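#struct-help
A.M.: can someone run this one for me? Single chain, 557 residues.
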Amino acid sequence: MPNCLTLKKSNCKNCYKCIRHCPVKSIRFSGEQAHIVGNECILCGQCFVVCPQNAKEIVDETEKTKVFLQSGAPIFVSIAPSFVANYDGIGINSMRKALKKLGFFDVEETAAGATMVKNEYDRILNEEDRDILISSCCHSVNLLIQKYFPKLLVYLADVVSPMQAHCLDIKRRYPDAKTVFIGPCVAKKDEAEHYEGIVDSVLTFEELTNWLKSENIELEPEMDENEHSRARFFPTNGGILKTMAKSAKKYTYMSIDGTDNCIAALKDIESGKIHNCFIEMSACAGSCVGGPVMEKYHRMPIRDYAAVAKYAGEKDFEVTQPDKMELKKHFEFIEHKLQMPSDYEINEILRQMGKMKPSDELNCGSCGYNTCREKAIAIYQGKAEISMCLPYLKDKAESFSDNIVNNTPNGIIVVNEKLEVQQINNSARNIINLRSASDILGDQVVRILDPKPFTDAMRGEEAKNKLVYLAEYNRYVEETVIYDTANRLIICIMRDVTDEEKEREKKEIISRNTVETADKVVEKQMRIVQEIASLLGETAAETKIALSKLKESIIDE
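D.P.: on it. Structure tokens below:
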């Protein structure tokens, strides 16, 4: 399978949105990056549609097509009938004018090939003894059956797609021609590559739009009418059925769109309870007008259907119907072996994810898999990582955080902007003599502490290592109060410094007593010195200065 979809690794943010939307879980995660598993992918394009980082890219074949235009051979465009939904107010004549300016020889509607295909479906149902016939227009549906429902290949219509039928017809009429298909589908790039020699390159509507812009070519609003254009209905849900004669009366004719619905229908057929049905299947919701390149840019299904319906005629295209053998197509089984783990191995992986018993298996789907056991199987097969389990990561983070919070010697109290206590750790409970966290959680912080530091923090006046005496608890604490603006929480961190403060107070008392004693000694000595000084004829003032310095040195010590 060609790499029709590529990944910009730098853009992948490990959000798992692509795997959540992938109907066959053909995406592997490793190194915190998503990787498309080619042999499992059905190219529905959903990963491209839903990626919020635009990490998925469709391989651009514009340059390849430009090379064809330079070759000198006549290059024909087969344009999907959904173009009228993608380009408002643009008919085939307007599109032809614009594309001829790019150098194309001519532009025709793929709907002509669709007419040949639906004629063949009618012939098979009338002339061949088929129990169930599934349309083979959608390459993604074909890949789905080839890879995941091989037993149902017998029911898949062995008929080329409208794209192939039309391009084969062009090459019958112009043997030297090259054909370029333009449409809303990613899978058509793979179909063209796999069945070589029919379609030479495939462009999406996005590629065409970018090319026209680069050449400053504008599409001129112009609608045309063609009574013989009923097959223009093909890109809508039930569009194939709208064009068919449905003359084989033993069959029930039905339409299924959306990959999940197709999978459910195929499982139903596989059960052996469905018979005598013609089933039109489209991987995209709403059929081709809901194609990935259209859906990516939020096309409107009702508006798009209306545009196609308004443009379609009431009669078939006038075509030369090829021989049935010319429209024959063979579909082979595409094998993608994946080793399945044993129940023991699945349970071991589940235990690593913290799921010790069935009740631990939340099956929340946040990882992209429907059940925890599916996820465990994907881990075993190397397609997923344990870290993709968000409840597991949450529990792990909470456990790690709780261990830090509950084992730190510092008291931690967290309150919301309503000053309601949200969290309190063991050290904080010890500081304020609180028996249990449940006694205060959800209540106002004023029950246990002065709320002013918390309100000050919300005003931007955060406290850092402020010494506070909690008189009610006879505790001294170094208090830091900060405001977490992102989470709108006020966090109070308290370090119990009661013992340190009591020790400091004890030293202050000793120092004070020492000073008092020194004062008494100095005073006594002053009297003695004064008496001696008077005897010696010295002034008392000089002696007093000397003794004062002595006193100061004692105090400093």
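A.M.: thanks! The first strand starts at residue 5 and ends at 7.
D.P.: also worth noting: The chain has five domains: 1-59, 60-327, 338-407, 409-496, 515-556.
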